Amino acid sequence: MRLQDIARGVRAGDIDPVELAENALARAERAADLGAVVHLDPEGALRAARQVRSGPLAGVPVLVKELIEVEGLPFTCGSDVFADRVGEADAEMVARLRAAGAVVIGLTYTHEFAYGCTGAANRRGPCRNPRDRTRMAGGSSSGSAAAVAAGVVPLAIGTDTAGSVRIPAALCGVVGVKPAFGTLPTRGVFPLAPSLDHVGVLAGNVEDAAYAVRVLGRLVGGRGPITPRLAVPARSQECAPEVAEAFARATGFVTEKVWLPDAEEALTDLQGPEAAAVHAGIFPEKADDYQAETRALLEAARQVPGWRYVRALERRRQIVRAAEEALKDVDAVVMPTVPILAPLLGEPGVRPALLRNTRFASLTGLPAVSLPMPVEGPLPAGLQVVGLDETRVLAAAAWLENALDRSL
Length: 408
Fold this sequence. Notes:
The strands form two sheets. Strands 1-3-2-6-8-7-12-13-11-9-10 form an eleven-stranded mixed β-sheet, sandwiched between helices. By secondary structure, it is of the alpha/beta class.
């Protein structure tokens, strides 16, 4: 059932929000082996559900990434550094969820401090992929994607600094939306790199994800073109054979090409120093409390000289201008979200591939959507849609979803 239908049924009195919450809590318990849900709040969820009567998300059970503060719930960010910390107030995003009538049932796993894309580093151990428990769920919004993919909830909230909503969405086979920078509020979210951090949503289909973004981002008007004008990157896409074949089938009708600038170096030189600044005073004093992967990244980040950060700021401005010029005549550019399928847990050396195609939208702050792309075999792949305008990007993603469904 779509989010709008759930909320409509609750408002009309045809659907019991308490039953919705109870069912979601039970599904979370049954999926405990995934490691996707790190904390359930049955008492709070049922209390909230009993009070729901109105709102555009009335009665919708939702999970929130564990580095987004929720009053009275653990606020550990997946780390032993904050093992005993409890949220003192709701983050603005959580307040908006509650104001819209959504029922927060608990917290989802994050790669420690959101500083990673595999979903393997957390005080509780790895988050597993619902399609294959031996494989990565991606990160850092690992649990949010895995919980939606496993059918625990129809909507989950994540964060995205370099691909952390879109990567797990692609690997788990769900829809992930990173709206434009600032569309969804970050107040009350533990930061990774403040000039790059986005809040995003994960859902089972584009319609639900777009609806949640519009409600929570308080966007009004605009539906985008009926048939979008699409392009693919001019630079060749290096992909695993299964992903390359799926992308060719999904975009075979797209003839226009655009040249997108490389964002890797600029994003790395911004993210690292900003992360080091966030953790100053905690790291390296409490280095032993960090996961080994996070510790290594922070140690490297502390070595980035100031001139590289300043140069990266200017490089970002250049890349934004180049992106605006490249995309001005199309509604969106499409590419594989991740050029490989979900790696095995513990597989080394996969970080560069996981991040390759997501950094561009994060650095520029442009809206981006990952939606499932039909692929041969049991593991999913994602199709990423990026553009200048949120309305057009969401419309293009919905059009592509319908087109891909018809092609099956």
